[in-house]
Each structure stands twice: as structure tokens, then as C-alpha cells.
UniProtKB/TrEMBL annotation, chain A:
One record GO biological process: transition metal ion transport
Topology in the lipid bilayer: Multi-pass membrane protein
Record Pfam families: CbiM (PF01891)
Protein name, as recorded: Cobalt/nickel transport system permease protein
Keywords: Cell membrane, Membrane, Transmembrane, Transmembrane helix, Transport
Source organism of the structure: Micromonospora chaiyaphumensis
Glycoprotein found in the keyword field: no
TrEMBL record, chain B:
Species in which this protein is naturally found: Micromonospora chaiyaphumensis
Higher taxonomy: Bacteria, Bacillati, Actinomycetota, Actinomycetes, Micromonosporales
Record keyword Membrane present: yes
Compartments where found: Cell membrane
Superkingdom, natural source: Bacteria
Protein name, UniProt field: Cobalt/nickel transport system permease protein
Keywords: Cell membrane, Membrane, Transmembrane, Transmembrane helix
Keyword Lipid metabolism: no
TM helices/strands, residue ranges: 42-61, 68-88, 108-128, 182-201, 235-255
Protein topology in the membrane: Multi-pass membrane protein
InterPro entries found in the cross-reference section: ABC/ECF_trnsptr_transmembrane, ECF_CbiQ, ECF_transporter_component
Pfam families according to UniProt: CbiQ
């Protein structure tokens, strides 16, 4: 999923770099408001977690594309869309600078696909599903699974769009094939991603529900249990 | 765990490249990559020039070619796409060893392989000569927003926490009679992912609170920033690499 140097031509990469920069600036402004004492270490851990799972790469030889887990939905659930997008972006920047995963000149494209598109799609679904589904661990698990699955497929189609705009080699009619292959492969990856996201989030929500951003932000606060003013046995 | 502020790719040395301030190296590396990507793919000689440039920096940094090329294999999954292009490209076709290949696709594959490899080599050189701590300091000095450097700091620190917790949980599983071998340990691992996350978070939270109570405000202490923001001379020295690369790219653009 990481686009390496030379796959997309320079002008398109530059346009997407500008786009990603503008969107990330917005995320920085909004994210500053969210980042408190609880969220700062969480954001770091989410980023580290995503970093670790992105190391698992599944090359698909017949199609010549590779895929891996993205983590956008996990980030959106645990730290919210703004800080979440920043977490994924930080992972991508460090990977490009130090590990050579994905070209540095293609960072704008990679950030647009994985950090922006993936997280945005996931958060929109989370916001919708958490309102519709029952407030049970199952409801949360289903939300996590579906949003992770969809976000991975959406991110993969971002690559197809970029290739259509500025691929360095004209694939002609095979572009539809590329779209199909990417969607199919990422549907499978999305199932894995969905399972990991759901188990992680449900476990965290059971033990420390205060750590799940989506639960804090989207569900109306449960009225605090009445505290006896005086004399109550506590 | 406390020792791990040096990532696996860092090569301890005191070469001139190691001594350059990190912000200079990051800027040089990014500009070099942009120059490479901007080069037209038919200018084969230009890529030879870039390769020589990379080799010169590697020699200066005392990074051996075997280490460099071995680590460069990491890009393989990412450039697999290149090998599919000759088969799926359109237009004029040639026969190579009985296979009908698209000429445009072959050019495309060369383009991706050459630019991808040069980019990977450049980032490996940066990684080999810069510690993670310096990397963050460098990004900070390049005016990267504090929220990003903060996330990056914690990310790199918590990677060690995560790995450490995973190892501890594996030992705990084994000492309770689990027999982890090859793929079968995946099931045990998958079942423990949520627990791993929570344990790592709670350890990380304690670390964070300890930092806050010792005066952490979101930026690393001045001691880190201190010694040696880049001088004009160091900027000039590091600028030679992207300057040469830009010249090659400009000549290639004019010639083709």
C-alpha cells in the first residue's frame, strides 16, 4: 500500500502533497484541543501499535501489489479523527524517512490514502454506527469491524484514483483490473484488520472505557451516579 | 528497555556524516529524493550519477555496501508492482525470452525500480547515521509542529515498551505450558492483542505521568536541543549532495 518513488508522476504527487499538508494543518489545529494528559500517551501508543502491525506485509505476487494493516480505524476509535490522522501520518513519515517504506517524494499520496482517507472513512462510519447500534460490547465490536474493513478498502481505492490521475505507465483497460485487484485484496486484509481492531477496542473498552475516544465523544454522557451529600455509607 | 533509544538501523560511528546535525541531513535527504523523482526516466546516465553520489556518501559515512544492499531488500514488497507493469502495460510490445512485454511497461518498471531503490538507499543512509533522538530533534528544529514531534517521540519510545510487553507475555504463556511454534503462536498472540495493548498503555501512562511530574511540557528539554544547531558551514557542506543531484536532474531535463 505504500507507494514507492516513481510510481506516480511528480506533478500529481506535488498536488497531493499540498492537499495532505493543508489537511494535516487542520488536524494539528483541531488535535491540539483534544490532546490532554490522557490522550498524549495514548496517541503515542496507538502510533507505535500501528507502526508494529504495518510491518506485517502481505505481498500478493500475482497482482504485484502488496498490502498490510493500516490502523486508521483503530486510531479514530481510540484517539479521535484529528489526533488519529496525525498518528497515522507520523507513522508514515518516520517509515519513509528512516525505513525507506514508501518514497519520501510520495509522502503526500501515502498520507492522503492511509492517514486522511482511511481515518475519515472510518470515523464517519463510527459516528453513524455508534448511534444506531446498541451500546453493548457487541455493538462496539461490530462498529470497529465494519469501519476498519471499509476504511482499508477506501484507502486502497485512493491509490487507484491517484494512479488514474498520474500513473507513470499507461495501463489502458487494465486500470479497472487494478481497481478490482486492489479492492479484492484489501477486502481480505480488511477482514483481518477488522478482527484486530474489534478485539483491541472491545478489550480496552471493557477495562478502561475512559480511554476510548469514540465512546467519550459520541455517546451522551451517562448521568453520574448520585453522590450522597452527607452521611451516606460509601 | 531503558537502553533502547537507538533503533536497529543505526550504525555507531563518528564519521563526518554522523557528526552533521540531524536537520541538515533530513533536508538534504528529502531534496535529493525530490531531484531523483523529477528526473525523466529515459536519462539512464543520470541515475548512474545518483548512484555514485549515494556511494560517495556511504563511503564517507563508513557504511558498507553489503549492509546497505542487504537492508535495501526491504523495498521488495513495495516495488513488486513494477514487475507487473511490463505484462499489463499498453502500446508497442517486444518479445523477450518468449514473453510478450510492453515497451512502455518496461520503461515504467525501470522507472520505479531505479527511483525506488535510490530513495530507499538515501533513507537507509539517514537511518544509519542518525539516532531516533536526533531525528526528533531535527524534525523539531525544522519547525515541525510540536504535536507531531510529541506523537513521534512517544511512538518511538513505546515501540520498545510494546515489544518488551509482548516478550514478557510470551514467556508467561510458555511458563504455563504453551508451546509456541511458528504459526501456532499466532492464535495465542491474537487472543492477547487486546491485553498487550492495555498492559503497554498502563506502563506507558506511568512513564508519561512520571515525565509530567518532572516538568515535561510537550517539548524535550533544552539539553536535547542544546549543543549544535546547524551552522551555515554545515548547511553548505550537506547542501553539496542535493545541489549535485539537482544539477544532474536539470541537465537530464534539458537533454531529454
Amino acid at each position: 500500500m505504500h507507494i514507492s518513488n516513481g510510481i506516480i508522476d511528480g506533478p500529481v504527487a506535488a498536488v497531493f502533497a499540498a492537499l495532505a499538508l493543508a489537511a494535516l494543518t487542520f488536524c494539528v489545529l483541531r488535535g491540539r484541543r483534544d490532546l490532554d494528559d490522557r490522550l498524549a500517551p495514548m496517541a503515542g501508543l496507538v502510533a507505535a501499535f500501528i507502526f508494529a502491525v504495518q510491518m506485517l506485509n502481505f505481498p500478493i505476487f500475482t497482482a504485484g501489489v502488496s498490502g498490510h494493516l493500516l490502523g486508521g480505524a483503530l486510531a479514530a476509535l481510540l484517539v479521535g479523527p484529528w489526533v488519529g490522522a496525525l498518528c497515522v501520518a507520523v507513522v508514515l513519515v518516520v517509515q519513509a524517512l528512516v525505513f525507506g517504506d514508501g518514497g519520501v517524494a510520495m509522502l503526500g499520496l501515502n498520507i492522503t490514502n492511509m492517514a486522511l482517507l482511511g481515518t475519515a472513512a472510518a470515523y464517519l462510519l463510527i459516528a453513524l454506527l455508534l448511534r444506531v447500534l446498541p451500546r453493548t460490547p457487541t455493538g462496539l465490536g461490530v462498529t470497529a469491524f465494519v469501519s476498519a474493513l471499509v476504511s482499508v478498502v477506501v484507502a486502497s481505492q485512493g491509490f487507484v484514483l491517484q494512479y488514474w490521475l498520474g500513473g507513470t505507465t499507461d495501463l489502458g483497460g487494465n486500470l479497472a483490473g487494478l481497481a478490482g485487484t486492489m479492492a479484492g485484496v484489501h477486502l481480505l486484509i480488511g477482514i483481518g484488520e477488522g478482527l484486530i481492531t474489534a478485539t483491541t477496542v472491545v478489550t480496552v473498552a471493557k477495562v478502561r472505557p475512559d480511554l476510548v475516544y469514540a465512546l467519550r465523544a459520541l455517546k451522551p454522557a451517562v448521568p453520574a451516579p448520585a453522590v450522597p451529600v452527607a452521611g451516606g455509607a460509601r | 528497555m531503558g537502553a533502547g533509544h537507538v533503533h536497529v538501523l543505526y550504525r555507531e560511528s563518528s564519521s563526518p556524516v554522523h557528526r552533521l546535525p540531524p536537520e541538515v541531513k533530513i533536508a538534504a535527504m528529502v531534496l535529493f529524493t525530490v531531484a531523483v523523482v523529477a528526473t525523466p526516466r529515459a536519462a539512464y546516465w543520470a541515475f548512474g550519477g545518483y548512484a555514485l553520489l549515494v556511494a560517495a556518501v556511504a563511503a564517507l559515512a563508513r557504511v558498507g555496501p553489503r549492509w546497505l544492499l542487504g537492508r535495501a531488500l526491504i523495498e521488495l514488497p513495495f516495488v513488486l508492482f513494477a514487475f507487473a507493469l511490463p505484462f499489463f502495460g499498453t502500446g508497442e510490445r517486444v518479445d523477450v525470452a518468449g514473453l510478450s512485454l510492453s515497451v512502455d511497461g518496461l520503461h515504467g518498471a525501470w522507472n520505479i525500480l531505479a527511483k525506488g531503490t535510490l530513495g530507499v538507499l538515501a533513507s537507509l543512509l539517514l537511518a544509519a547515521t542518525t539516532t531516533t533522538r536526533d531525528l526528533i530533534v531535527g524534525l523539531d528544529r525544522l519547525r515541525c509542529p510540536q504535536i507531531l514531534t510529541q506523537i513521534a517521540t512517544f511512538m518511538l519510545r513505546y515501540l520498545d515498551v510494546l515489544v518488551g510487553e509482548a516478550r514478557r507475555m510470551r514467556v508467561a504463556r510458555m511458563s504455563r505450558g504453551d508451546d509456541p511454534r511458528f504459526l501456532w503462536q499466532l492464535r495465542g498472540f491474537a487472543a492477547g492483542v487486546g491485553a498487550l495493548f492495555l498492559r503497554a498503555f498502563e506502563r506507558g501512562e506511568r512513564v508519561y505521568l512520571a515525565m509530567v511530574s518532572r516538568g515535561y511540557t510537550g517539548r524535550m528539554p533544552a539539553v536535547w536541543q542544546g549543543a549544535g544547531a546547524a551552522t551555515a558551514g554545515q548547511w553548505a557542506a550537506a547542501a553539496t549532495v542535493p545541489a549535485i543531484a539537482a544539477t544532474i536532474a536539470a541537465v537530464a531535463l534539458v537533454l531529454t
